[in-house]
Amino acid sequence: MGSFLWAGQCIRVPMQQLALPVELGGLNLHLPAFKCQALLVNRHLREIENLPFYNSFVSTTRNPPNLRIVPTNCPCLKTVCSELPYLPSALQANPSANLLHAHYLNKIDKPKVVLENPTANWNRIWRNIAAKHLTSFERCHYYLLVNRKLSNQRLLHRMQRADSDMCPNCNNEPEDIPHKISTCPRVAAAWTVLQRRLRNIAQNRNISLTHLLQPTLFAIRRSVKVKVLKTFIQFVIFVSKDNNVIDINELEFHLDTEV
User: Domain of life here (predicted)?
Assistant: First the structure.
């Protein structure tokens, strides 16, 4: 599934995060693993009284689950025994597949970027980058960008997919996302073009890179906000597509046609 979602890209957002609701940093993706687990546990909870073999094992193995005594040829029983001790008593008394699925979703960790910067207004950030006025292509790239999954040498080096974290264009400093799209000499002139355009859109208001990478964008009208988001992410798409020298005229044309 990961290869399908990310078109073979090596840098991906964790699959479990995608199952979270959009307002919590996910894509509301229904993961088969969670759905199947909820259906399995629900079925056994509803029929456990009619399965004395299962009932005896469940009562013997719980708190904490001692799975070594479960026969190896009963994988479903092992799953049920491992889950039941950690289910709320109310859920065990009145189970349903939907409630169990919601319970498993609630156990998913918050996105890494949220944990690293808990003071940011993440609900607003996730809502902004999921705006329906952005194309699916733009939303996808903004989602990767906010989750710090835009390909860069520092990230690739940490993943042991690059020999060095130095910028391949200037070779002056490590390439992280801010360097790649704003401070590298390769993009300096292009960044100036972007800043000029954003000031024109936002009525001479300066929008910092930080507020573009985590776009809360307070006190900006919706129509202006959407245009700011579209302009910035189209700029990122353009400068990130390869490492060639950036043609400013081509960039201007790209922004004129795509925004």
Answer: Eukaryota
Quick: pLDDT tens for 113-147.
999 999 999 999 999 999 999 999 999 999 999 99
Q: Which amino acid is at 139?
A: R
Q: Which two tokens stand for residue 35?
A: 């759905």
The CA distance from 214 to 113, in Å, is: 10
Specify the DSSP element, H or E, that contains 141: helix 136-146
- Model pLDDT for residues 143-193, shown as the tens digit of each residue: 999 999 999 999 999 999 999 999 999 999 999 999 999 999 999 999 999
What is the C-alpha separation between 47 and 52, in angstroms, rounded?
10
**CB contact set of 151 (below 8 Å; sequence gap of 6+):** 9, 11, 240
Beta bridge partners of 174: 166
* Residue 116 token pair: 């690293």
Give the orientation angle of helix 248-258 with respect to helix 222-240, to 10 degrees.
140
- What DSSP string runs through the chain? -HHHHHTT-S----HHHHTS-GGGTS-----HHHHHHHHHHHHHHHHGGG-HHHHHHHHHHTTTT-GGGS-TT-HHHHHHHHHGGGS-HHHHHS--HHHHHHHHHHTSPPPHHHHH-TTS-HHHHHHHHT-TTS-HHHHHHHHHHHTT-S--HHHHHHTTSSS--B-TTT-SSB--HHIIIIISTTTHHHHHHHHHHHHHHTTS----HHHHHS---TT--HHHHHHHHHHHHHHHHHHHS-SSPP-HHHHHHHHHHH-
